[in-house]
Specification:
- By secondary structure, the protein is α+β, with helices and mostly antiparallel strands.
- The chain is built from 25 helices and 20 strands.
- Strands 2, 3, 4, 5, 8, 15 and 16 form a seven-stranded mixed sheet that branches.
Length: 699
């Protein structure tokens, strides 16, 4: 009986087990069916999930041309190798860097001590691990509970304990790998990073191109550099562009990134390249990369074709510019041979169309000692026309006379004595020669200081008495400066370049300084301000905004043609001076007498010229504040020379300003301002005649 019962128990238990298994499998099948039916599509989408990442690829910048269509700044194509980080692990990136190092030669100058340390740890993981003991790790774990922070502290100790001897085991090949890996890891995910774009040989490009399949992320491409067809001519005005390595300027990072720039994009960093960045930068190519869940690129699609930047056409005439620069160089070198010119080292010239404000030439030269050779070299300083200011002397007298007319201090034809003024406690203030009783025209023609002194005294409501104190209203400084400003003196001219300087305004309001202001020996002005001032007189009273960009044009593939016009920079009148037309014509006549009558101060240089010039010269007593000032206990006295002119006098087409600071010391005037001015105007009109002949012969 007992045995029978035992036999029956075993099948019952098995049946229970089988039933339980059946139930479990049934539940599992039901669950899988539920997941597949209810959540199947969601999981399928998750598995197939991709990410769209749009990448901008930089394009060449726009070109810069002169007013005749000559290329000034171009883009020079060059071989380049890039790397795009697709999110791969460090080991894979390093493997690619090692292989690429066998194909190209990479400069290692930028490899830092930290780069070497990081690489040594990657190359010697076991040795690096032993740099920190178990006991030290335990203490760090107790102190830093966050895993990332703990790992950082361990890594920091490992770096500190790498010896110099261990780093010295790195070979030249290792350093090249480090240099390449450094470029790889510095880029953004899915954004091409420049690995090498300098001196990439055709052989290197070919070898890398042949092995791209084994170099994931690496591409061969074409990069570009700015190329200056006229070398250093106007280089300071044209400005600079950042390198692909430096990318965006750190101080303007947020500004550029908010405008869609990438960190390694090249941008204009100074002057014309900076001022017209939005025009020159171009339209970057936009590429959409689709990646899978693992970050691998599954497809690439160009969603916007790239186009190089728009081109700039300048108002500058490069043939004229080169002639003007040559004249400045020759006259500077010649003048340096004269006595009293040890401090002379620079000269500036601006030529402008007085009716439009177009700058036809903007030249400046400076003699500087080469720090390596110790020899004096002539360098470009065209920028000095807007960034440096000086006492300019008698060229401002046209504005002084017009201020006198406006305030009622004098009238056209007013006669005043040129007898020197003796003010109590001051030396005699006189003209360069005694002229007797003179009117306003003679005062301009022969450059009378005393006539301007007496005019300024009347503007200030004062009365002169021999050897007595001079009581003047200090408000006269503001009155005169405000009137000068109408011509562009002492204010920004509005030129389309950054960092324009307005000049220094003397702080003292003592009466004697008002007299100095009236003859251009108190406040300081730039050459560009003088050009705007004389243009205002030449065109009958309109202060034109100077500009060096004439047109913006679309880029075209044909290098010999200019593209369609996008924008023409129109003449802009900043203000019209507060003066009767008869008053302006009176000053124009005075300027014409300066250049075309025997007693005129510029007659020796411009008298008898067929282009009928008008002019005004200036000599200012000043104190030297140039590069050699540290050689003196007190700044030595110097003479600044200037010249303003326009021609033809009856229908001006060109206005000119010449400024030569620290031209000489002592009493021997070398006349460099007049020599430069005469040769520059001759060059302008000679070039005009040559082109007219060429044009007529072609017809």
């Amino acid at each position: 009986m007992g045995k029978k019962k035992k036999k029956k128990t075993i099948p019952i238990r098995l049946n229970i087990i089988f039933f339980a298994v059946f139930l479990l499998f049934s539940a599992l099948i039901l669950r899988l069916g539920f997941v597949q039916i209810v959540y199947g599509e969601d999981y399928k989408r998750e598995l197939e999930k991709t990410e769209d990442v749009t990448v901008n690829t930089s394009v060449p910048r726009g070109k810069i041309y002169d007013t005749t269509g000559k290329t000034i700044v171009d883009n020079k194509a060059k071989n380049a190798i890039t790397y795009t980080n697709t999110g791969v692990k460090q080991e894979e990136m390093l493997k690619t860097a090692k292989l690429l190092a066998t194909y190209i030669k990479k400069d290692t100058k930028k490899v830092t001590e930290r780069d070497k340390q990081d690489y040594w740890i990657i190359k010697h993981p076991k040795e690096a691990e032993k740099k920190v003991t178990a006991a030290e790790k335990k203490k760090l774990q107790e102190k830093y509970t966050d895993e990332d922070e703990y790992n950082q502290q361990v890594y920091k100790l490992q770096l500190e304990r790498i010896t110099e001897q261990e780093l010295n085991t790195l070979t030249q090949s290792d350093l090249e790998v480090i240099a390449i890996y450094r470029e790889f890891s510095s880029g953004y995910k899915l954004t091409p990073q420049m690995v090498k774009n300098e001196d990439v040989t055709d052989k290197e490009l070919a070898v890398v191109s042949e092995n791209l399949e084994s170099l994931p992320g690496v591409e061969t491409t074409t990069d570009w550099d700015r190329m200056y067809k006229f070398k250093d001519t106007l280089k300071t005005v044209l400005g600079n562009v950042s390198s692909s390595e430096k990318g965006l300027p750190a101080e303007k990072l947020e500004y550029y990134e908010s405008r869609g720039y990438s960190r390694n994009d090249r941008v204009g960093t100074s002057y014309l390249e900076l001022e017209y960045e939005d025009v020159l930068k171009g339209q970057k190519e936009k590429v959409r990369n689709k990646t899978d869940k693992s970050g691998n690129i599954t497809s690439t699609e160009v969603i916007a074709e790239g186009q190089r930047g728009n081109d700039l056409v300048l108002s500058i005439d490069m043939e004229l510019q080169l002639k003007v620069e040559k004249i400045i160089e020759e006259e500077l070198r010649t003048a340096k041979q004269s006595a009293g010119t040890s401090l002379l080292d620079r000269a500036y010239v601006v030529l402008m169309d007085p009716d439009t404000g177009e700058v036809l030439s903007m030249a400046g030269k400076r003699l500087e000692k080469n720090s390596e050779t110790g020899k004096m070299e002539m360098t470009d300083d065209a920028l000095g026309n807007i960034t440096t200011t000086y006492n300019v002397g008698s060229v401002v007298k046209g504005a002084t006379v017009l201020a006198g007319y406006k305030t009622g201090a004098i009238s056209p034809g007013t006669v005043l004595s040129d007898t020197g003024l003796k003010i109590a406690g001051t030396p005699l203030k006189k003209s360069w020669t005694y002229m007797g009783d003179i009117n306003d025209l003679t005062a301009l023609q022969r450059s009378s200081n005393v006539y301007m002194f007496r005019t300024a005294i009347k503007i200030a409501g004062g009365t002169y008495a021999y050897n007595q104190p001079l009581d003047l209203h200090s408000s006269a400084f503001t009155t005169m400066r405000n009137y000068y400003a109408q011509f562009g003196l002492g204010v920004r001219t509005g030129i389309d370049l950054p960092n324009e300087q307005t000049g220094f305004k003397g702080a003292s309001t003592k009466p004697g300084f008002l007299l100095d202001l009236a003859i251009g020996q108190y406040d300081t002005y730039s050459t560009m301000q003088l050009a705007q001032y004389v243009s205002t007189i030449a065109n009958g009273g309109k202060r034109m905004e100077p500009h060096i960009v004439k047109e913006i044009r679309e880029p075209v593939s044909d290098e010999n043609e200019l593209g369609p016009i996008v924008e023409t920079i129109k003449p802009k009148v900043l203000n019209t001076i507060d003066a009767k037309q008869a008053w302006i014509e009176r000053v124009q006549l005075g300027f014409k007498m300066v250049a075309q009558t025997p007693k005129g101060t510029v007659y020796s240089a411009l008298g008898g010229k067929s282009y009928s010039p008008a002019a005004k010269s200036g000599t200012a007593q000043a104190f030297y504040d140039g590069p050699s000032r540290s050689n003196y206990d007190e700044p030595p006295e110097v003479m600044n020379l200037s010249l303003i002119s326009y021609a033809p006098s009856d229908n001006p087409e060109v206005a000119m300003a010449v400024l030569v600071p620290w031209a000489y010391q002592g009493s021997v005037d070398n006349g460099i301002n007049k020599k430069i001015g005469e040769r520059v105007l001759d060059a302008y009109f000679d070039l005009k005649k040559e082109r007219q002949k060429e044009s007529s012969s072609e017809d």
